[in-house]
């Protein structure tokens, strides 16, 4: 694996050369951030491998939540060891990897405590000098991070805290405290897919190109290095979403009373002719908005998933049906304007067991969205993890400004509207 030379300062932290030690003596924090496809996680795992051979080093490797490291993140590291040709030096366990040559232990754990009384595994932090947080954008609690950070204080090895993430909002504590302040003890490395082109699929690159041509703001945030900011005139602010975000584990403990798949179909069906036009013009048709939402017995609302996509009528219908069954939804709510009358027929032709309801949009998008905006502002809606593209659309779409139709927003609005109201719906 050949990594971008942008990672060189990061790997210099492993050097025993006096010049390198002096060069980076102030560094405690390393922030690796950027859009999708930049190989940030691969770089971290590649860095960890030689780090385990250093004298007196111990590594605490975390995500916000980590249910089964042996099935997810540890295999990623084992693959890197295979590529580097030293797998035989390691023992791979359920929540640990041990370097049998040096004795270094990598402990894998979720950063989020299992109860309100605990805040991390202090035993795992003993004798650790490296604290790694993958998917660090999910860590919305600075206090929990700070408690673990304060435990990294060995005296016989360099102490390092490494955060690897896709950039989120400028309101996130990582941006405000570790990037915006431009501190001497922080190494910041920004990476994009352009630094990893040799390993990326041509189809993925074409998709990125189309996104760039269609929506530069989305491209810069999802695939570039731009942190999301609130947009004047947008209906939502980041502060309406981030403070109320919860994890899937927290959601699993709730008493859920109803689940709805909201579906806002695009005007364009991606048939063969449409694909040929796309190839000639480089433009995409609108997305089909597919968002899953739930209401708990206490009356709060939750955004579970965003499956919005482009595809043929059959492909989109199958995706909606898959979402319905995966989340054990009570119904699918479909907007039938702009040709949406075909949807119940196509869905029923694939799966007669699903319950489809249609609604006619008699009011404008802004008017329909405003009651849902109020729910967000009142803190009554939580996103399960990050829904980056939906959230970007929410905080950047300006009504009546000639911007592309907000299909993800529409799908979400229909779903929550159904969960709020006991109204008369047409059954397709």
Describe the structure.
The chain folds into two domains: 5-199, P-loop containing nucleotide triphosphate hydrolases (Rossmann fold, 3-Layer(aba) Sandwich); 231-427, 2-Layer Sandwich (Nucleotidyltransferase, domain 5). The longest helix is centred in the C-terminal third of the chain and has 14 residues, at 313-326. It starts with 7 loop residues before the first helix and ends with a strand. It contains 16 helices and 15 strands. It is of the alpha/beta class and 428 residues long. The strands form two sheets. Strands 3-4-5-2-6-7-1-8 form an eight-stranded mixed β-sheet, covered by helices on one side. The protein has a seven-stranded mixed β-sheet with strand order 14-11-10-9-12-13-15.
* Biggest sheet layout: 8 strands, mixed
Kindly state the mean pLDDT as a whole number? 88
Which strand-content bin applies to the residues? 15-25%
Helix count from the secondary structure assignment: 16
Q: Give the tally of β-strands.
A: 15
Per-chain topology:
Elements lengths: L7 H5 L5 H6 L5 E5 L6 H12 L7 E5 L9 H12 L5 E3 L3 E4 L5 E6 L11 H4 L4 E5 L7 H9 L9 E6 L7 H7 L6 E5 L11 H13 L1 H7 L25 H5 L3 E9 L7 H10 L7 E8 L4 E6 L6 H14 L4 E5 L6 H9 L5 E4 L5 H13 L3 E3 L4 H9 L10 H14 L5 E2 L1
Parallel strand pairs: 1-7, 1-8, 2-5, 2-6, 6-7, 9-12, 11-14, 12-13
Antiparallel strand pairs: 3-4, 4-5, 9-10, 10-11, 13-15
């Amino acid at each position: 694996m050949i990594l971008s030379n942008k990672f060189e300062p990061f790997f210099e932290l492993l050097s025993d050369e006096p010049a390198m030690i002096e060069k980076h003596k102030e560094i405690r924090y390393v922030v690796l951030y950027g859009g999708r496809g930049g190989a940030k996680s691969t770089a971290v795992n590649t860095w960890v491998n030689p780090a385990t051979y250093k004298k007196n080093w111990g590594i605490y490797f975390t995500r916000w939540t980590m249910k089964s490291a042996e099935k997810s993140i540890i295999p990623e590291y084992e693959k890197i060891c295979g590529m580097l040709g030293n797998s035989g030096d390691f023992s791979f366990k359920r929540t640990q990897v041990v370097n049998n040559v040096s004795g270094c232990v990598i402990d894998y754990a979720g950063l989020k405590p299992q109860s309100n009384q605990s805040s991390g595994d202090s035993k795992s932090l003993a004798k650790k000098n490296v604290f790694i947080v993958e998917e660090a954008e999910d860590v919305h609690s600075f206090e929990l991070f700070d408690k673990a950070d304060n435990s990294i204080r060995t005296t016989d090895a360099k102490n390092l805290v490494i955060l690897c993430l896709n950039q989120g909002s400028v309101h996130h504590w990582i941006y405000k405290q570790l990037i915006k302040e431009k501190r001497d003890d922080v190494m910041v490395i920004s990476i994009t897919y352009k630094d990893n082109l040799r390993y990326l699929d041509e189809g993925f690159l074409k998709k990125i190109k189309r996104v760039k041509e269609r929506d530069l703001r989305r491209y810069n945030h999802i695939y570039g290095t731009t942190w999301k900011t609130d947009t004047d005139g947008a209906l939502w602010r980041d502060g309406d979403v981030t403070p109320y975000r919860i994890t899937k584990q927290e959601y699993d403990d709730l008493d859920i009373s109803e689940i709805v798949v909201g579906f806002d179909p695009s005007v364009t069906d991606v048939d063969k002719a449409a694909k040929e036009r796309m190839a000639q013009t480089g433009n995409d048709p609108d997305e089909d908005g597919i968002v899953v939402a739930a209401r708990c017995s206490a009356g709060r609302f939750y955004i579970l998933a965003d499956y919005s996509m482009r595809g043929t009528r059959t492909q989109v219908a199958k995706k909606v049906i898959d979402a319905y069954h995966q989340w054990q939804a009570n119904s699918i709510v479909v907007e039938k304007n702009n040709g949406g009358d075909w949807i119940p027929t196509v869905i029923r032709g694939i799966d007669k067991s699903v319950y489809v309801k249609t609604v006619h949009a008699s009011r404008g998008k802004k008017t329909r969205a405003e009651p849902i905006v109020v729910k967000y502002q009142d803190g009554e809606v939580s996103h399960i993890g990050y829904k980056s593209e939906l959230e970007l659309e929410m905080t950047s779409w300006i009504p009546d400004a000639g911007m592309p139709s907000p299909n993800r927003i529409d799908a979400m609005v229909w779903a929550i509207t159904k969960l709020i109201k006991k109204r008369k719906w047409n059954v397709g």
